[in-house]
Amino acid sequence: MHEIALVCVLALEGHDSPDVAMSYGNLGNVYDRQGQYERALENHQKALEIFIKVSGQDHPDVATSFNNIGLVYEGKGDHEDALVQFQKALEMSYNNIGNVYDRQGKYEEALEVYRKALEIRTRVFGSDHPDVAASFNNIGVVYEKKGDFENSLVQHQKALEIRTRVFGSDHPHVAASYNNIANIYQ
């Protein structure tokens, strides 16, 4: 039934649709329950790619996809890969919680969960990764909102260093880091 649903949704909405991603995820869950782990992984990976493309890296559906992939690896007995996927889902959850605290003006709480996200991202991806830079950026923004410009500057400089190494100097994320640093000096 899920395969039929996928064909219908693809015909109606095209490939880059949250509904298509959800259908791939549902198929992945079915294959996982059947013990067809490679097919399950293939479908969950497709769901993940589409969710990232249409909803952005920080969307809860992306965290759910990482979690689903982790469950498949766990079912296969591949505990190391399962752990990596679960940690990705967890760091995204911390980051999303931090975003909510930030919007609510609960800056200490935001800093606490952003730091947890940074710790997990560094452990999972290594120190030279765009997501690690994003965590430094988020922490820098919160310090700036608190009026702690010295700590904000330190965090934004760390983000800038990583982004420059990863993307090169002519990238929009590098420009955003320079902009954040300039805002501190205003």
Written description of the protein model:
- This protein is an all-alpha fold.
- It contains nine helices and no strands.
- The longest helix has 26 residues, at 79-104.
- The protein is elongated and about 60 Å long.
Element pattern in H and E = HHHHHHHHH
Low-confidence stretches: none
State the secondary-structure class. Answer: mainly alpha
CATH 4th-level superfamily of the largest domain: Tetratricopeptide repeat domain
CATH topology of the largest domain: Serine Threonine Protein Phosphatase 5, Tetratricopeptide repeat
Q: Into which percentage range does the β-strand content fall? A: under 5%
Taking the alpha carbons of the first and last residues, their distance comes to 59 Å
List how many beta strands DSSP finds.
0
Report the CATH C-level class of the largest domain: Mainly Alpha
SSE order and pairing:
Layout: H1 2-13, H2 18-33, H3 37-55, H4 60-76, H5 79-104, H6 107-125, H7 130-146, H8 149-167, H9 172-184
Helix pairs in contact: 1-2, 2-3, 2-4, 3-4, 4-5, 5-6, 6-7, 7-8, 8-9
Top keywords for this entry?
single chain, 186 residues, mainly alpha, Serine Threonine Protein Phosphatase 5, Tetratricopeptide repeat, 2 domains, 9 helices, 85% helix, 0% strand
